[in-house]
Amino acid sequence: MNANVRPSGPPTQTYDSAFLKACRREPVPHTPVWFMRQAGRSLPEYLKVREGIPMLESCMRPELVTEITLQPVRRHKVDAAIYFSDIVVPLKAIGVDLDIKPGVGPVVAEPIRTRADLERLRDLTPEDVHYVTEAIGMLTAELGETPLIGFAGAPFTLASYLVEGGPSRNHEHTKALMYGDPQLWADLLDRLAEITGAFLKVQIEAGASAVQLFDSWVGALAPADYRRSVMPASAKVFREVEKYGVPRIHFGVGTGELLGLMGEAGADVVGVDWRVPLDEAARRVGPGKALQGNLDPAVLFSTPEAVETKTREVLDAAAGLEGHVFNLGHGVLPTTDPDALTRLVDYVHTQTAR
Ligand SMILES: Cc1c2[nH]c(c1CCC(=O)O)Cc1[nH]c(c(CCC(=O)O)c1C)Cc1[nH]c(c(CCC(=O)O)c1C)Cc1[nH]c(c(C)c1CCC(=O)O)C2
């Protein structure tokens, strides 16, 4: 991203929002805040509108997506919205037989483990996800100056669901393929990079003013394996959307040893979980990138005083950063008290007001 060139995309007020400024490492009026998995989860207004509608179906209804995406912005006054969807939506859209099981996560009917399986993954066209374009059009009209973050799953994390057939603790089938048939693995990740790149383009062209690539499970890999077997595909996704000039955020869990490489893959903003303090993360990532994070989401179950103390630690560690977007170190946990999130946004805003 060239920070000196204003891209043609977002309207001026959105472009000048605290969130996009922090991503571009420009001075901000206050540290911007948003939460991974802020839409959905525990909000009573979310549970009400989702009643009786399966998760994947709700992702295909533009009015519902618009309402759910707006709910946390209205309630918590966060500095950015994240598009309500799931990382497996583009796979579903190209015909992969999968479902999202409540309390479990994505489950794939026929796992992908052979070359013949790989042939089933066709390219994604904008028509496959026309509801995304429709929903983002409605959303940007409603959001006004608040930026909308588009997102996708990174090739490794998507491959893990496809190869395992569902959520996995050890990723054993995924690693078996990665080490046992490096060519098939590389081709699988390359195909997923194309699908992911196409999905992010749809969101940016519809009006998303930043994108986040979730590589949630990549922390299962050692740096040498990441560099050899995963980074080329993630870098391809970032290159695909480079021309739009919107900030590209890259996040994973347990990635302390990978932070430098994840920045190198082409991110403008590197997401950090709660295990590495942000000043140390900045040393690992190096200059020229903003950081996002990193309050432990479990801290929100503690007392208001403890939340403030732990938040203060995050802000102190972030004091010398070139750009900081406040977030949790992973997604909002399902039983989090929504009021604790609202208080947290307010605390960060008042503590960092300049
Ligand atoms: C790994 C991953 C997935 N999905 C996602 C990731 C990356 C982020 C992360 O690491 O947490 C990303 C995601 N999934 C969802 C969003 C919506 C926007 C947001 O709130 O940030 C986002 C950004 C909605 C969802 N995605 C899912 C729900 C729950 C749906 C339901 O229960 O009906 C929602 C609101 C389902 C899902 N989908 C997935 C999981 C692990 C689950 C949870 C299973 C469970 O505990 O119920 C895969």
From TrEMBL:
Entry EC number(s): 4.1.1.37
UniProt: substrate binding residues: R37, Q38, A39, G40, R41, D86, Y161, S216, H330
Xref: CDD domains: URO-D
One annotated GO molecular function: uroporphyrinogen decarboxylase activity
Ranges where the Uroporphyrinogen decarboxylase (URO-D) domain occurs: 32-41, 149-165
Chief place where the protein resides: cytoplasm
Pathway the protein contributes to: Porphyrin-containing compound metabolism; protoporphyrin-IX biosynthesis; coproporphyrinogen-III from 5-aminolevulinate: step 4/4
KW Magnesium (keyword) present: no
Matches recorded under InterPro entries: UROD/MetE-like_sf, Uroporphyrinogen_deCO2ase_HemE, Uroporphyrinogen_deCOase
HAMAP family in the cross-refs: URO_D
Function field: Catalyzes the decarboxylation of four acetate groups of uroporphyrinogen-III to yield coproporphyrinogen-III.
Homology family: Belongs to the uroporphyrinogen decarboxylase family.
PANTHER family xrefs: METHYLTETRAHYDROFOLATE:HOMOCYSTEINE METHYLTRANSFERASE RELATED (PTHR21091), UROPORPHYRINOGEN DECARBOXYLASE (PTHR21091:SF169)
Protein name per Swiss-Prot or TrEMBL: Uroporphyrinogen decarboxylase
Annotated organism of origin: Streptomyces noboritoensis
